[in-house]
Design goal:
two-stranded antiparallel ribbon, about 70% helix, single chain, Four Helix Bundle (Hemerythrin (Met), subunit A), about 300 residues, globular, mainly alpha
Length: about 300
């Protein structure tokens, strides 16, 4: 280990001890501590819930198994009210009686006509009539966060999985960049400029620059992942560094868009502008593009549940 042996006289040395208890509230208290920590780090509701479902995170997963998903969601909602968790996406919701329910069961379109009107894949939020374009973009953020969680977990496991990374790169290039960022760059940002928000020297310029940074990091991962998986140590260092940098970049990028840029858009864009944006989103996600969108939402779920082996 790269550390000295623990020094009993050092007040900063961490010590742990096993304490047996039959207190039924222990799992709830432990789960609450995890949720509070993740919320204070800026994680959204859906990403926090997803971490409880991953077996590699032993403590959260044990609480998830012991308490059940409904109880974990209740704890997440409580902590979100305290720490200001991000707006909920399409993953969970409540029915008319207040029961925790998958949102797809609440708002899933029942006919092809309603599907056309909803203008989006049921598994990635809904372009519900009267909804805001920023809600759609934030729902897509939650999907992207699933892949960020998986990429982060790969690094935690200390492995370079070329098959996983190939799928992750495909997802980023065709969903995060090709679908999501394209909506922002081609639809949202121009409308914000028309509303008086300058492209240069403001949040739009910052977001565009970070999109470019992300593409460069994904290129580095793509170029080195096969060599790294084959045992090339310099390539392995490049991949781990690029994955960490990409996850960190996207996490803070998403937070800035959710809490600053999208809130600004909701304030300055009138109902006509928002309706026009929704129609353009519909055109982007029409026909074969909708099937493509659904494919990558499913891929995000596959990556979130990926099993890494050393």
């Amino acid at each position: 280990m790269p550390y000295n042996e623990p020094d009993a006289t050092d007040p900063m040395t961490l010590h742990g001890a096993v304490v047996e208890t039959d207190d039924a509230n222990v799992q709830r208290e432990m789960a609450t501590c995890f949720i509070e920590e993740y919320m204070r780090m800026g994680y959204g509701r859906d990403r926090v819930l997803s971490m409880f479902k991953i077996q590699d995170y032993i403590g959260p997963y044990m609480a998830y198994r012991e308490l059940g998903e409904a109880a974990i969601i209740e704890l997440i909602d409580h902590q979100a009210a305290i720490w200001g968790g991000r707006r909920e996406s399409g993953v969970t919701g409540r029915d008319a009686d207040g029961n925790v329910t998958p949102r797809a069961e609440i708002s899933k379109p029942q006919t092809e006509m309603e599907t056309d009107k909803a203008m989006s894949s049921p598994s990635c939020g809904h372009y519900a009539e009267g909804g805001a374009p920023t809600t759609i973009l934030m729902d897509e953020h939650r999907v992207i966060e699933h892949v960020l969680t998986a990429m982060e977990r790969m690094v935690v496991n200390g492995v370079v999985d070329a098959v996983f990374l190939g799928k992750a790169v495909d997802f980023v290039r065709n969903f995060a960049d090709g679908c999501h960022h394209a909506k922002e760059e081609d639809i949202l940002f121009p409308v914000l400029e028309e509303a008086g928000i300058p492209r240069e020297g403001g949040p739009i310029a910052c977001m565009l620059d970070e999109h470019i940074q992300g593409r460069n990091l994904i290129a580095a991962i793509s170029e080195n992942m096969k060599s790294a998986a084959a045992g090339d140590e310099p390539a392995r260092v490049v991949v781990f560094k690029a994955v960490r940098a990409y996850v960190g970049l996207l996490e803070q990028h998403i937070e800035k868009e959710d809490s600053i840029l999208f809130a600004m858009a909701d304030r300055v864009l009138d109902t006509g502008q928002q309706a026009s944006m929704l129609e353009k989103f519909n055109q982007v996600e029409h026909g074969e593009n909708l099937k493509r969108h659904e494919h990558y939402v499913a891929l995000a779920d596959e990556l979130l549940n990926w099993k890494f082996t050393r």
